[in-house]
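Memo to structure team: turn this sequence into structure tokens by end of day. - J.P.
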Amino acid sequence: MKISEVTALEDKARDIRRLIIQTAYSSERNAHPAPALSIADVCTALYYRFMKVDPKNPSWEERDRFILSKGHACLVSYAILADKGYFDKEHLKTLRHPNSILQGHPVMGKTPGVDMTSGSLGNGLGLGLGMAYYLKETKKKSKVFVVIGDGEMNEGPIWEAMNVAPVIGTDNLIAIVDQNHFQSCGSTEEISPMQNMRERWESFGWKVFEINGHDMHAIISTLEMAVNHQGSPVCIVANTVKGKGVSYMENNNAWHQGVVSRENYEIAMKDLAGGEV
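Reply from structure team:
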């Protein structure tokens, strides 16, 4: 791949991070900025390099599907969908307002471009499996991408879907684990350790890649292998930093959710003004 392509996606990911912070601040609502920031690089690569979608036709039958199973991180989805033209960016200011199309978790049918209502953790992989199976049965070449939080891996339905997916041949299903090592109540290591995440998925029959979830070159090259892999579903374990790019949010679980003040906003935007994220 060309260095310019990597640089362009890195710049776009920084833009998306700015939109995440702007949305949290301008809406004046309690939001989940840090979980959105950790997966911003991967989601940027998906939407701007790999996924087959049409903002003018969100229900296009041949599109790739995207499920944000860790639905509380919806700021990353909203920022990308707005940036790609699914809806006007003015809607970002209405996050969690009454009658807004942008609620605190993604709602299918309310927000253009959202393929699954999420927020109740643990359901995304199973529903993504169902979508992937349908697409295989109807001979469509579309892929299904499911982003899962590492804390979400505590949920039993995830493991049920992990077990079934290789058996029914859904090699069009790609799961991405956002391994930022935190969940709402604390660190995953303290609550339910899963240091051997890769081995766990492999033991269920998945093809597994493990990457630095903020290295755009690694993200692109791994997604390239994932979308071309045949014979089994794919899991990408993305090692990330919660709150990546904003100095006071990085690895600070106090920002799992919170209201972004004017001071918070100014510091964050200065952090995201340029240079490495």
